[in-house]
Amino acid sequence: MSVLVYAALCAGAIVFVVATAVRAWMYARTPIHLRWELYPVPHEDPEKVKHGGSYFEDKDWWTHRRRFNLAGELRVMVPEMLFLNALREHNRKLWIRSFPFHFGLYMLAGTCGLVLVAAVGGLAAPAVMAGTLAALLHVLYTACGVAGTALAVTGAIALLHRRLTDPELKTYTTPGDIFNLLFFVVAFGVLAAGFALRSPQEPGAVAVVRGLLTFDTALRVPALFGAGLVLCALLAAYIPLTHMAHFVGKYFTYHSVRWNDQVNLRGSAIEAKLTEYLTYRPTWSAAHVGADGKRSWAEIATTNPWEGAKK
C-alpha cells in the first residue's frame, strides 16, 4: 500500500506542476487581447487612482518614465485571490457557496506546506523537531487541515446543490461540472474519514511524507487513509487538465486584459506583434465579418461590412 501511495503522490504533484506550467505558457503565448481600458488601474500612481485617472492625463505622457505601483496592485490582487471580492460584490448568492470552497482549498494547500516542513524538519533536524516546534506544527497542520477540509466539502456540496436546483444555471451545467464537484467531495471525504478512523499507532500525514522522502516501504499506511491520499493525488493531477485551471487564467485576465495599459510606441514590441497579427487570415462562421480564411485581418479591419451587405 505504501508504494502505491508514494507513486500516486509523486505522480499527482508532477502532473499538477507540469500541467499548470504548460497552461500558463500557453496563455502567455496567445495574441494580445483587446484591452479593457477601464480606469483606475491599481498599479497606477496612487494620486491618479484616487480619482480614477491614468498616466494619459499627463502632458507629453509618452516621454515620461512611468512608475509601477506594486503595492497598489497587491492591495487589489490579494483580497481578490483570498476572498473573491468581485464575486461577493456582483453575485452574493454564489459567493456564499464559492468562498468557503475556495478558501478551504487554500487552507489545505497551506496544510500540505506545513506537513512538508514538519516531515523535512524531522529528517534534517530531529532534535529541534522533537520539542515545542513539533507540537506547534502538529497543532497548526491539524487545525488547518480539519478546517480546510470542512470548508471545501461544505462549499462543494453547496455549489453542487445550486447547480442541481437553480434554473438559471441549468443551461450552463454539464455532467463534467457535476463530476468535478463530486470528485472533491468524495476525495476529501475519504481522506478525512481515513485520517479520523486510523488508530493512534498508525502513521499520519507527516509520517507518510517522511516515508515518501526516504522511500520507506515498510511503512504500513491504513487502507482507508491511503485510499484518500491516492484520490487526492488524482484530483491534484486532474485539476489543471480541466477548466478548473481558471486559477491560472485569472492572472492573465487581470494583467493582460483588465490592467494592461502598456504604452504602444513606434518600434515597440507591441507594434511588432500587432503588425504580425494583421497578416493572420481568420475563419469565423459569422458571414457578415467576411473572415473566410482568405482575407487578412488588415483587409477585414479596413472593410465596412455594412457596405458589403448593401450589395
From N to C, what is the helix and strand string?
A: HHHHHHHHHHHHHHH
What does the average pLDDT come to? 92
| SS elements, strand count | 0
Oligomeric grouping of the chains: single chain
Total tally of structural domains: 2
Which strand-content bin applies to the residues? Answer: under 5%
Residue ranges: pLDDT <50 for 5 or more in a row?
none
- How would the global form be characterised? elongated
Decide which structural class fits the backbone: mainly alpha
Let me know the largest β-sheet: none
**Discrete helix count:** 15
Distance between the termini: 73 Å
Describe this structure as you would to a colleague.
This protein has 311 residues and is mostly helical. The protein folds into 2 domains: 190 residues, Transmembrane di-heme cytochromes, Chain C (Fumarate Reductase Cytochrome B subunit), CATH 1.20.950; 33 residues, no CATH class. It has 15 helices and no strands. Helix 1 packs parallel to helix 11 and helix 9 runs antiparallel to helix 11.
Task: Give the SSE layout.
Blueprint lengths: L1 H27 L17 H5 L19 H14 L1 H6 L1 H33 L1 H4 L2 H34 L1 H4 L4 H23 L7 H10 L8 H16 L7 H13 L10 H9 L19 H5 L3 H6 L1
